[in-house]
């Protein structure tokens, strides 16, 4: 006995969740089952589209509809309708190509007219701090609004699409655990965060840094520091890494309760096609480095000038004041003045304390 249309669509979405690369095929089958032109699956966080996969669509649409329009509910009536609905509540779309809605949402309305996708239906599948995942059908003017039977099909299949999204999340979480195991094997203290900055996993070494007495804490799933300014610096670096993955490693220096500095490296994880909201996008590492800190890290941590940072590193290596003066081509008096400024900024009073402080940096 052959499969029903519903069974075929459900099977295709399950396969897409497992292989991670056949979502367009599943969405096209969903569109056909609902008598629509296109199927669309979108992941949105505030101000940004994390992913959008659409079957049977002209890719020029994504050029004409920039990310701001696609993600902003004040500019995109479909996103606005999704945010106003309850999860799995299928909503029949308005005619987004109508004169009324084109006046209210000019960029979106014009795109709907140009690409003939003004009709359809939508439902929110998932909503969390990381963002929202929505399912939609796009219909042409000739197809018109979805019929009652087509809406029933949409409602019947939407929970199975949600099951596929959840299955993909489980697959991504298994990958996260594998990555954490590999990092722990090489003694890396690491936190893996998703697009929204939520910590999706941490290594055993990182667990030792988190807690009331540790330099870091987890608050509602987010990494925080003892000082509010350090917490914001970590959050800002995580956002930059997620949104600008090619910018390289950022170093954020935080301080624990005692004022001791700790360097946290923030970097984007390698991009993976067909990933949703759930896969970690950013890795924060705290390295017990065998090397001394760089001058730039000292400047960031303590507000030192470049000259003061260089002198600090020379002191940490055990150099005496006269040798530092000779090496830098300055007078001993200049080095003495620089050390006074360094002592004040580092909160120490002797050269030996600089060596102790930097040994744990």
Q: How would you describe the overall organization of this protein?
A:
By secondary structure, the protein is of the alpha+beta class. It folds into three domains: 5-167, GAF domain (Beta-Lactamase, 2-Layer Sandwich); 187-286, Beta-Lactamase (2-Layer Sandwich), CATH 3.30.450.20; 295-359, Orthogonal Bundle (Arc Repressor Mutant, subunit A). 47% of the residues lie in helices and 20% in strands. The strands form three sheets. A five-stranded antiparallel sheet has the order 2-1-5-4-3, sandwiched between helices. The longest helix is centred in the middle third of the chain and has 38 residues, at 148-185. It is elongated, with a radius of gyration of 27 Å. The N and C termini lie far apart (69 Å). The relative contact order is 0.09.
How do the strands and helices of this protein lay out in sequence?
Layout: H1 5-19, H2 23-33, E1 38-45, E2 48-54, H3 60-64, H4 67-71, H5 77-84, E3 91-92, H6 99-104, H7 106-115, E4 119-128, E5 131-139, H8 148-185, E6 189-193, E7 199-202, H9 204-207, E8 216-219, E9 222-225, H10 228-243, E10 250-255, E11 261-268, E12 282-286, H11 295-302, H12 306-316, H13 321-328, H14 332-346, H15 351-359
Antiparallel strand pairs: 1-2, 1-5, 3-4, 4-5, 6-7, 6-12, 8-9, 10-11, 11-12
Helix pairs in contact: 1-2, 1-8, 11-12, 12-14, 13-14
């Amino acid at each position: 006995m052959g499969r029903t249309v519903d069974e075929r669509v459900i099977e295709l979405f399950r396969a897409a969740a497992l292989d991670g690369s056949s979502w367009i095929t599943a969405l096209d089958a969903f569109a056909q089952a609902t008598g629509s032109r296109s199927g669309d699956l979108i992941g949105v966080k505030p101000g940004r589209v994390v992913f959008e996969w659409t079957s049977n669509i002209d890719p020029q649409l994504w050029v004409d509809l920039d990310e701001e329009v696609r993600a902003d509910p004040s500019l995109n009536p479909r996103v606005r309708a999704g945010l106003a609905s309850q999860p799995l509540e299928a909503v029949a779309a308005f005619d987004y190509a109508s004169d009324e809605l084109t006046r209210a949402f000019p960029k979106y309305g014009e795109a709907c007219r140009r690409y003939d996708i003004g009709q359809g239906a939508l439902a929110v599948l998932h909503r969390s701090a990381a963002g929202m995942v929505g399912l939609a059908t796009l219909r042409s003017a000739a197809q018109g609004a979805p019929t009652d039977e087509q809406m029933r099909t949409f409602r019947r299949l939407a929970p199975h699409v949600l099951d596929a999204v959840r299955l993909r999340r489980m697959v991504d979480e298994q990958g996260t655990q594998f990555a954490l195991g590999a990092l722990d094997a090489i003694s890396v203290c690491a936190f893996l965060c998703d697009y929204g900055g939520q910590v999706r996993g941490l290594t055993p070494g990182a667990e030792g840094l988190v807690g009331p007495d540790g330099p870091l804490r987890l608050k509602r799933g987010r990494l925080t520091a003892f000082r509010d300014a350090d917490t914001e610096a970590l959050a800002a670096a995580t956002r930059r890494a997620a949104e600008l993955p090619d910018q390289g490693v950022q170093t954020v220096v935080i301080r624990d309760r005692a004022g001791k500095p700790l360097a946290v490296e923030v970097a984007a994880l390698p991009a993976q096609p067909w990933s949703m909201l759930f896969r970690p996008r950013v890795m924060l590492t705290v390295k017990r480095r065998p090397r001394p800190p760089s001058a730039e890290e000292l400047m960031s941590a303590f507000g030192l000038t470049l000259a003061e940072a260089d002198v600090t590193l020379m002191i940490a290596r055990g150099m005496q004041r006269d040798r530092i003066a000779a090496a830098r081509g300055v007078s001993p008096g200049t080095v003495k003045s620089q050390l006074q400024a360094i002592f004040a900024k580092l909160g120490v009073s002797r050269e030996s304390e600089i060596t102790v402080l930097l040994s744990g940096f």
